[in-house]
Amino acid sequence: MASTSSYTEITEEFLVCRVCFGDFKQPKILPCLHTFCQPCLERLLATEPVGKLSCPTCRQDVPLPKNGGQGLKSNFLVKKQLEAPMKAAEIDLASAKSCIQVTDHMSEHGRSPTGVISVAGELTGHLEQVTSGNITENTVDSKDKRDPSERRAQKDMSKLVVGINQLRMPTTSSPEGKGTQTRPAVAIGDCFATLKHIKTVRKYGTGDGEFEFPTSVAVTTEGDIVVADRSNKRLQFFGKDGTFKRKLYLSFLPIGLAVLPSGELLVTGDGHRIHVLDKQGRESRVLQVTGAAEKDETTKGIAVDSSGRIIVTIGYRVFVLSPSGDTVLKLEDKGKLDRHLLRCYLRVTVNSSNQIIVSNWNSCCLKIFNPTGGHVFTIGSRGVRTGQLNNPNCVITDSQDNIIVADSNNHRVSLFNREGTFIRHVLTRKKHGLNLPWGLTVTHDRHLVGCDNDDSIKFFLSNSNERRNTPS
Question: What is the pTM of this model?
Answer without folding.
Answer: 0.63
